[in-house]
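User: What would this chain look like folded?
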Amino acid sequence: MSLLRYTAWRIVQAVPVLIGILTIVFFLVNAIPGDPVSIMLGPSPGVEQIAEVRAKYGLNEPVHERYLNYLASVAQGDLGESINVNSGMPVTKLIMNRLPITLLLTVSAFAFAIVTAIPLGIISAKRRNEPTDHVARIVSLIGVSTPSFWIGLMLIIVFATHLDLFPSRDLVMPWTEPGTGSRVTRRADSQLEIISLSIRHLILPMITLGTLQMAQITRIERSTMVDTLQDEYIKLARAYGVSERTIIRKHAFRPAQLPVITIIGLGLSTALGGAVLTETVFGINGMGRLIIQGIHQRDYPVVMGTTIVFGVTYLVGVIITDISYAYIDPRVKYGDQE
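Assistant: Here's the prediction, encoded as structure tokens.
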């Protein structure tokens, strides 16, 4: 099966999964105690006013009709209008305003995790049971077992409060025009200064969100490299006098990356979930805070819209992971039955 056909087939397979996510989220959100209209109108609203708002957002219809109408709207790219977070604004526009912030945070966290974890895992496997290996295993164990929000709070206390090295609030986007935006970016004179500000604001949230991914990837990288370095073809290469560096770079590294790719792809959902806590701790106005606001204010369209975006992002990550297998290991064939 060609790459194009395999990708198309995986996208078709993702459609029922996405409908299942949408269905579960719709009925769970509608089962949350509380009334969004009461939150919008405050205490003692008029009966006519309540009826008008309910009719405007379709809340006066039976749940099954609202579900079918919502499915039809989503199929046309319409995620509805916000009820309380930003009343009347299309949810799509709200998401597009916040999505780049969360993507910047998530991508930078993954970059931090991959850049630190893969060398650490390889060194740990190469120096198995030596002090370097023990240190790497302890670091990865601490990273796996420590909650992200606690890491974030500790980083704020040490590096923002006591040492005053990095800011602990907000996130500056690198494409912000100098002299515009927030109080911090209005004082910047050049784009280079904006990028510098963005990096400084990004350091602490990036480490907070990326530590768990770093720890997981390090453990998987180490275990797969240890197994690969004990294979017969590696022993044969050593017997022929091939240098250890060449063995690792040319013969051991690539076959050992399949489990690593799997954990990176599956870690995308963990990172998106962790972004909710990280954005809350650092006061970043991304998708995580948007979904929290939506839940607090019973804004059904916002909660469902953000969950759909998270679900689509995860499915895209899984498809890209599956496609990457054959690129890393030519023995893997797209869609073969064997």
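The first helix runs from residue 3 to 30. If you want, I can go into more detail on any region.
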